[in-house]
């Protein structure tokens, strides 16, 4: 291999690099002092090969060190390449890429969710990924600080959407809609501290279902809870419990306990942390940070630490103080009716009336609910995974009116499925069980057993594609049959349609089952129906 050419005026002072000789130290210094960048890069490459060759030959340590020192001197002389831009190859904090395997899991989860939404008669909409900043401002309480604001791009102050509920309310008001049952699956953005292992991200999907319109009390609310239970049961991610409360009960409780009106929302935010920290810590925050009197905090604690079923609702309706608060009585009356409907839907055993549930978002006005896993899956080889709530929602009757010029209200109730957390659970389970996940839906590979049959393979696969069959072939003129069969096993393709010279004469195709290795001759005109019959079972990936 010829080495780099040096300036002709000095070539007599330095021999070129033939394949068997390398630079000594004096030649190296001379090369470094006189060479242009391209020549230096050649020296660095060749010296690097010299070092690698010595290591492969297990040369002496001193000799290797000497050659490495030469390489480092050359690299120092070369210096950084100012013309080349250096990229940091990483995703932004709180985001992730999805591999084909992960996407297959995600699509399966989405299919379960969407089929349930459609079963309940929902239409689908979409809205922009960013909204006017004023649309989002003041709707999320203390979480408003997590909104991503965009740089001014010509007169409009914009922010990335924080959830799908506020854009939905804006959509209803803008289009003057008073009645719709819709679902919306899209990405939202929160400037939060991400916890990737627990399914918390800065960019993530939400799957929302909402019913807007004036209806009799608690019927739409009960259906939302039914949908939540159907989806979580279908996904088989473990036992779950849906906590239910009502913002009117919370506000009534705060009022009878002596919480000032101006502190309702901020105390509500503290109560919402009870599922994560102890009452002592929550009380400390209420008193120390938010200025609530200790005796008032204790009275709040007596109420918000209670949970139960319809019997607790009835007990609170008899509470001497709470029963005197109009808001609380309205909320308790609706919850009692809700439990009747939930019993008829067969899901009352999955529901718990929990007075600590607060849901920190400002726009909730009535029933609120949140689904949590009772025992995160811990199967063989799996670490317990604390992923928090996996679905939540509630009633927000005033949000649309905030956008309507005349303040016309459209009552709404809805739910959101925490798909990112569900993905984390399903992915961990598949890894622990070492389950193979199909990343394609290919039904058949068109193969050949002999050479010079590419044209016949192309003809056959075109027939299959035109008939709606999901088919592949290897991109080689004369692939070996063994390689084609191995590809099927690796990709999970269940069938192979083998084209051969004898089969072409007989007007048949040899159809092979990859799992059983059984082969049958199928008339060409019957091939499509036979493939459909054999692959009619739905593909399962989790």
Automatic annotation (TrEMBL):
The keyword Repeat does not apply. InterPro entries: aa-tRNA-synth_II (IPR006195), aa-tRNA-synth_II/BPL/LPL (IPR045864), Anticodon-bd (IPR004154), Anticodon-bd_dom_sf (IPR036621), His-tRNA-ligase (IPR015807), HisRS-like_core (IPR041715), HisRS/HisZ (IPR004516), HisRS_anticodon (IPR033656). This is Histidine--tRNA ligase, cytoplasmic. It is found in: Cytoplasm. Homodimer. It comes from Balaenoptera physalus (Fin whale). Gene3D superfamilies: Anticodon-binding domain, Bira Bifunctional Protein, Domain 2, S15/NS1, RNA-binding. The keyword Protein biosynthesis applies. Its EC number is 6.1.1.21. GO terms for cellular component: cytosol; mitochondrion. It holds the Pfam family WHEP-TRS. Belongs to the class-II aminoacyl-tRNA synthetase family.
């Amino acid at each position: 291999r010829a080495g780099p050419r040096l300036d002709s005026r000095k070539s007599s002072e330095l021999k070129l690099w033939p394949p068997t000789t390398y630079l000594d130290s004096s030649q190296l210094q001379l090369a470094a002092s006189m060479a242009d960048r391209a020549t230096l890069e050649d020296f660095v490459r060749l010296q690097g090969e010299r070092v690698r060759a010595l290591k492969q030959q297990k040369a002496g340590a001193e000799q290797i060190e000497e050659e490495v020192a030469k390489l480092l001197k050359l690299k120092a002389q070369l210096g950084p390449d100012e013309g080349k831009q250096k990229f940091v190859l990483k995703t932004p904090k709180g985001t992730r890429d999805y591999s084909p395997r992960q996407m297959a899991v995600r699509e399966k989860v989405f299919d379960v969710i969407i089929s349930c939404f459609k079963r309940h008669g929902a239409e689908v909409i979409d809205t922009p990924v960013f909204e006017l900043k004023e649309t989002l401002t003041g709707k999320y309480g203390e979480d408003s600080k997590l909104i991503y604001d965009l740089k001014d791009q010509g007169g409009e102050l914009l922010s990335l959407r924080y959830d799908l509920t506020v854009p939905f309310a804006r959509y209803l008001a803008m289009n003057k809609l008073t009645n719709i049952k819709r679902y919306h699956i899209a990405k939202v953005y929160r400037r939060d501290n991400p916890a990737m292992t627990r399914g918390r991200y800065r960019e993530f999907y939400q799957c929302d279902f909402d019913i807007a319109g004036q209806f009799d009390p608690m019927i739409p609310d009960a259906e939302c809870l039914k949908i939540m239970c159907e989806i979580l049961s279908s996904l088989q991610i473990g036992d779950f419990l849906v906590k239910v409360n009502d913002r009117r009960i919370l506000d009534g409780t705060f009022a009878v306990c002596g919480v000032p009106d101006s502190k309702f929302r901020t105390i509500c935010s503290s109560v919402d942390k009870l599922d994560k920290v102890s009452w002592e810590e929550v009380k400390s925050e209420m008193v120390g940070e938010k200025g609530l009197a200790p005796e008032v905090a204790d009275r709040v604690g007596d109420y918000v630490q209670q949970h139960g079923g319809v019997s607790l609702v009835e007990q609170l309706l008899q509470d001497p103080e709470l029963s005197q608060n109009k808001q609380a009585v309205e909320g308790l009356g609706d919850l009692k009716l809700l439990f009747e409907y939930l019993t008829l839907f067969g899901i009352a055993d999955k529901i718990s009336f929990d007075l600590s549930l607060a849901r920190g978002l400002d726009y909730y006005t009535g029933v609120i609910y949140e689904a949590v896993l009772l025992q995160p899956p811990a199967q063989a080889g799996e670490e317990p995974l604390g992923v928090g709530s996996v679905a939540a929602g509630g009633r927000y009757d005033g949000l649309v009116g905030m956008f309507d010029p005349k303040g016309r209200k459209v009552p709404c109730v809805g739910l959101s499925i925490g798909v990112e957390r569900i993905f984390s659970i399903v992915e961990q389970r598949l890894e622990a069980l070492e389950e193979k996940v199909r990343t394609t839906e290919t039904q058949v590979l068109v193969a050949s057993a002999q050479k010079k049959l590419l044209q016949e393979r192309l003809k056959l696969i075109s027939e299959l594609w035109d008939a709606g069959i999901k088919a592949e072939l290897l991109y080689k003129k004369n692939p070996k049959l063994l390689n084609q069969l191995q590809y099927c096993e690796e990709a999970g393709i269940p069938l192979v349609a083998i084209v051969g010279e004898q089969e072409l004469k007989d007007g048949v195709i040899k159809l092979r089952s990859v799992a059983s290795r059984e082969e049958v001759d199928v008339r060409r005109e019957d091939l499509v129906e036979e493939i459909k019959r054999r692959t009619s079972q739905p593909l399962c990936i989790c």
